[in-house]
Amino acid sequence: MLPMFSLIPTPSKGKTETLDLISKLGASRQDEAVNDGPLQPMKFNENAFELPGWVSRVANELGSPIVWFVMEKDIFASDASDQQNRFMIKKHAVVERIVPILTRAELAAANLVDVMERAGKKRRVDRGERVGNREREHGGLEVMVYCRGGWGCPLLLTRWEASQASVLKGKNYKEFHRRCGFAVKDRVEMWAFRNRDGRLCFAIGKQIDLELSL
């Protein structure tokens, strides 16, 4: 099982340290979730692991010192379809690894307020008609998504009302899918970070041997 968080090492460190998100989300930390900012990783773990090189390079170029693992999944036909034009995110990954690091405004924009509340996170959010209108108007939270080659584009993170599925979608998805070269049954991994401006970013790519990714 891959660790959830990683600090990107500087050349002098030589290794990556893991961070324990579960302890951050414990009862002792819940009171800190009432402000408008996302929760921050707190507890260091002594275990070390190596980030995929391509993820580390993308995050470094965008000024991010911290990256967290979101999920692994197999590409389904719907993910590779130009007609459906979206990338499905596993429910547990949304609940455990995306929702906890979103601000109140981001939760509302991504239509994930109810998910956060069902998961038991004690954040104060505005569930009034004003938030609902904003989510419907914009259709999701705009994020940047990057492929293995470092090419990126804006997509929308949102949850569909009917199926309750969370997806990345948007007019750029067809080009993103083409550049990633996704095919049905490919095994891919998804990582997340915030760039130097605080914008939420995802890195999604096939799992291949390290030698092939250099």
From TrEMBL:
Subcellular location(s) of the protein: Nucleus
Gene3D superfamilies membership: DNA-binding pseudobarrel domain
UniProt entry keywords in alphabetical sequence: DNA-binding, Nucleus, Transcription, Transcription regulation
UniProt GO molecular function: DNA binding
Chief location category: nucleus
CC per GO annotation: nucleus
Domain of life: Eukaryota
InterPro entries cross-referenced by the UniProt entry: DNA-bd_pseudobarrel_sf (IPR015300)
Alphabetized PANTHER family for the sequence: OS05G0237600 PROTEIN, OS08G0290200 PROTEIN
Protein's recorded name: Uncharacterized protein
Organism field: Vanilla planifolia
